[in-house]
Amino acid sequence: xxxxxxxxxxxxxxxxxxxxxxxxxxxxxxxxxxxxxxxxxxxxxxxxxxxxxxxxxxxxxxxxxxxxxxxxxxxxxxxxxxxxxxxxxx
Length: 90
Prior knowledge:
Elements: H1 2-12, E1 26-30, E2 43-47, H2 48-57, H3 62-89
Antiparallel strand pairs: 1-2
């Protein structure tokens, strides 16, 4: 596929330190959901599991997904510490 070649040359090779797996292990995700928009800034290189999570969460990109997950982790930590503090007061 041509788009994989473009993503490989223009994203993966330029940022190789960001990717721990061989390129063949990654999927190409279209941030806007349309496979007709092959502009580089519309493409994400993601693992297959990240790709599934992005689509299942309804988010558009790897960045949005990780921002969402980070917010959820912060909420969980706050809830955990509130519970822990309230238990100490009892």
